[in-house]
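Sequence design from tokenized structure. All designs in this work follow the same two-part layout: the structure record, then the generated sequence. An example of the structure record is given first.
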């Protein structure tokens, strides 16, 4: 399997961890009421649960960009060293991003987000026809 697909699978697994963390933080805060339809929760989400929801939503937004770029790069034979490095950079940054968001580590969350975006753009730069790389 191409290295870029390894990064892609790892990113999906990371997203699953993020969803699990969100569910656990919600269960810790709301209790068994989450087993029902959740129409009328007795209390607001905790700060941690809100952060977990926002981190998961942000990961999904970034995966929508990352996944097709990786697939196109691999399927068109553009898995260059730059594209592979960009995919790895995305994954590494997103691994840092999640706990940085959950635990409100100052400056690390936006730095990790920006680094992940740079990784995504590195992959994109290798498949865009006007860059000369394709």
């Amino acid at each position: 399997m191409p290295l870029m697909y390894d990064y892609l699978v790892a990113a999906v697994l990371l997203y699953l961890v993020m969803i699990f963390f969100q569910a656990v933080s919600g269960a810790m805060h709301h209790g068994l009421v989450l087993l029902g339809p959740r129409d009328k929760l007795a209390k607001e989400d905790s700060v941690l649960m809100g952060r977990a929801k926002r981190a998961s939503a942000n990961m999904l937004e970034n995966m929508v960009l990352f996944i097709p770029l990786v697939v196109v790069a691999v399927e068109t034979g553009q898995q260059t060293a730059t594209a592979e490095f960009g995919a790895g950079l995305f994954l590494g940054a997103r691994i840092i991003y999640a706990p940085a968001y959950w635990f409100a580590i100052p400056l690390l969350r936006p730095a990790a987000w920006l680094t992940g975006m740079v990784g995504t753009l590195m992959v994109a730069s290798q498949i865009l026809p006007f860059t000369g790389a394709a």
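The mean pLDDT is 89. We note this feature because it recurs in several other targets discussed in the main text.
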